[in-house]
Amino acid sequence: MPGVLRKDEKTGRFVYEFNGNAVYEWEQTLDDVTIYIKPPPFVQKGNQIKCQITAKALKVGLQGGTQWFIDEPSGGLIDVSESTWSLEEDDHDASQKVISIYLVKANRGAQWNTALLGNGAVAALDPAAQEEVRKEMMLERFQEENPGFDFRDAEFNGSVPDPRNFMGGVKYS
């Protein structure tokens, strides 16, 4: 049975749930995908976590353990040399820690329809959510290319173009 992907209206992040439990949250920009994982309550320091980021996969587990609690292919190609992770206080619950995994996209502007592919049972963005993410990324691109203009209330007639390819494509900084 595949997991469920839903948008958390409070945080604006997508939440991947399996068997009714939130496994991770994620969000994306033109440049990156950030994944948020709540570790077990006893985890208080980053050296208790092990995290391996490769160009096509992510593994997260407890230091000294033999199993990974996340061991999945990624939803897109990762620039490993620019990607990182940290253990931080949760912005939404100060009593809780969160593992923040910052994956830099190898292909700037590429839209990921899922953060992690899962065990062959992918919970991907539905078409309406894909369109919403494409709009957010396109507005981010417009803002970057036209500093000083406010695009927050911009609307698109018809479907939103792909920000990676529209009018010459995204520029790399």
UniProtKB/TrEMBL annotation:
One of this protein's GO BP terms? protein folding
**Could you name the Gene Ontology cellular component terms for this entry?**
cytoplasm
Segments forming domain CS: 19-116
Q: Where is the signal peptide?
A: none
Listed GO molecular functions? unfolded protein binding
The record, for PROSITE patterns, names: CS
Q: Which CDD domains match?
A: p23_NUDC_like
For this protein, the record's Gene3D superfamilies field holds: 2.60.40.790, Single helix bin (1.20.5.740)
Note the Pfam families from the entry. CS
Which InterPro entries did the record assign?
CS_dom, HSP20-like_chaperone, NudC_fam
The source's superkingdom equals Eukaryota
Q: What is this protein called?
A: CS domain-containing protein
Q: Which organism is it from?
A: Cylindrotheca closterium
